Amino acid sequence: MLEALLASVLLLDLGLIFAAVEQMVKPAPPDAVENEPLPATNEQDWEYKIVQVRGGAFRSWRAIQYVCQQEAKFGWTLLEKLDDNRLRLKRPIACRAKDSLLKQNPYRTNYGLSADFMLFLSVVGTLLLLALPAYIGYTFTRRIFEDLETQSPRQIQAPPAKKPADTAK
Fold first, then answer.
1. Which pLDDT score is estimated for 42?
2. DSSP-assigned beta bridge partners for residue 83
3. pTM: predicted TM-score of the whole model, two decimal places
4. Are 132 and 15 in contact, with CB atoms under 8 Å apart?
5. Are 23 and 107 in contact (CB under 8 A)?
């Protein structure tokens, strides 16, 4: 029964960690963005890029719309959704002329949490997963041994030794 209790506490802890990470990865609600019409060009005048996100956030249409609105500021349009983690975008090469005026990098390819922050979360999560069972085990054994009466070896008095009987009288 104790094993089931410990397993349920550990699984609850894992569930809370995953729920917190999922909330951090979700994109913010999209802002209203003005989309400029793209100039008509032939197929050779386009440039392409693939945008990636961790955790399959592109399952949600909201996330795709948010990324498309952010990238539309730089002239990028959605070409196709490759999978739940990647989108392929395109823009006319003529949009490069405005890139020097922008504050952000128009060629960025990652959205969501940075790799360094994800590594930090992984390390913290691993330490928590290791520390929680250790703490539970410590408190459990401490409670068991609190009630036991212990004596130091000096306090224990041995029974008096019997004197050998005199047989040589």
1. 62
2. 86
3. 0.48
4. no
5. no
